[in-house]
Automatic annotation (TrEMBL):
Annotated GO CC locations: membrane
Pfam families: Fung_rhodopsin (PF20684)
Keywords: Membrane, Transmembrane, Transmembrane helix
Database matches in InterPro entries: Rhodopsin_dom_fungi, SAT4-like
Family in the record: Belongs to the SAT4 family.
Entry's transmembrane regions: 6-28, 40-63, 83-106, 118-139, 168-190, 202-220, 232-259
The protein's name in its UniProt record: Rhodopsin domain-containing protein
Localization annotation: Membrane
Originating organism: Pseudogymnoascus verrucosus
């Protein structure tokens, strides 16, 4: 199979996957949770940028991306390179929006100050480094048209190896943020009052982004193609393939993390609270990133139990959400059965 055909398959596959998952995310947040937040807006913008990236790469393929320079006319090489560079600029911004969306989602869940400080710092660093990287790539040539058509006039361009090193640095930040956002939920859930089964399921869902870092690591291997100036359109095609996989997985993983309310509605096993809490009280769902719109009330009930006579017992349920350290307390009075 030709390289450009493989890239097209990857493009349309991940456009379909992201459309479904981001669409379901919007449905959950708007129709079920009624809590559409800033993290959702960032993901929606990220999806729009991703769709634009797919469109730009399709045009680049039309002109010759994935083919050898000897098989292309001069105007094809120029146009393919132009849309490829436009795609690179979109990728940089898109990647930043998706990572920040995940950081904002975790920020809605964080209750411990140190976790919130870490997340705030990571979001600021991502925003700053994304902006700096975008500006460097946008001004790699003066004028930028020299980047895809060296004969278009006079000016200067950065060395190809410098752009490659910038790509390594940007990918390193991507990998670091992926690992941070994958493992921080473990620390966030460590002392939360919920069943281990529920903790495990939430950690797994929130850690799906680790697969995006795997794609980023693989992509690093092919960034050296940027130094192959003689046949760059052919050499860089596989890099673009892993770029789409990286961004697509990040977007799918970030959206799946918000679908727990939909899975609960479908009675998917293992995504609810403990049965004990459900029996003891009018249960208020723990959801990823929000508290459902109803008033918290302290309830008391009296239960007669044949065992454990003469003991008083308090049961606490932690409601984990954006309103931070909110607890729902259920007082259970146990009396002797006559």
């Amino acid at each position: 199979m030709e390289q450009e055909v493989k890239l097209l398959v990857v493009l349309w596959t991940f456009l379909g996957l992201t459309t479904v998952t981001v669409g379901l995310r919007c449905y959950v947040r708007l129709a079920i949770a009624k809590s559409f937040g800033v993290d959702d807006w960032f993901m929606v913008i990220g999806y729009g940028l991703f769709a634009s990236l797919v469109a730009v790469l399709v045009v680049s393929i039309h002109y010759g991306l994935g083919k050898h320079a000897l098989d292309l006319e001069s105007y094809q090489q120029i146009n393919a390179a132009k849309y490829l560079i436009i795609g690179e600029l979109i990728y940089i911004i898109d990647s930043g929006f998706i990572k920040i969306s995940v950081g904002l989602l975790l920020l809605r869940l964080a209750v411990v100050p140190i976790h919130r400080y870490i997340l705030h710092a990571s979001i600021y660093i991502l925003a700053l480094w994304t902006t700096v990287t975008f500006l460097i790539v946008a001004f790699q040539c003066r004028p930028l048209s020299l980047a895809w058509n060296p004969a278009s006039g006079t000016g200067t361009c950065m060395a190809a190896i410098s752009i490659t090193r910038l790509g390594y640095a940007f990918s390193a930040l991507d990998i670091g943020s992926d690992f941070l956002y994958a493992f921080l939920p473990v620390a966030m859930l460590w002392n939360i009052q919920m069943t281990w089964k529920l903790k495990f399921s939430i950690c797994i869902v929130l850690s799906f982004g680790i697969f995006a870092s795997v794609a980023t690591i693989v992509r690093l291997k092919y960034l050296i193609a940027l130094t192959d100036e003689a046949d760059v359109l052919f050499a860089i095609c596989i890099t673009q393939m892993w770029t789409i996989i990286e961004v697509g997985i990040g977007m799918v993983a970030g959206s799946i993390a918000t679908l727990r309310p939909l899975l609960r509605k479908m009675n998917i096993t293992g995504l609810g609270s403990s049965d004990q809490y459900t029996r003891e009280s009018n249960y208020k769902s723990q959801e990823l990133g929000y508290i459902k719109q109803s008033k918290l009330n302290t309830q008391s009930s009296t239960t007669k139990v044949a065992a454990n006579l003469g003991q008083d017992n308090d049961s606490q349920e932690l409601i984990w959400g954006e309103d931070r350290d909110i607890h729902k307390r259920v007082d259970v009075s146990i009396s002797r059965t006559q």
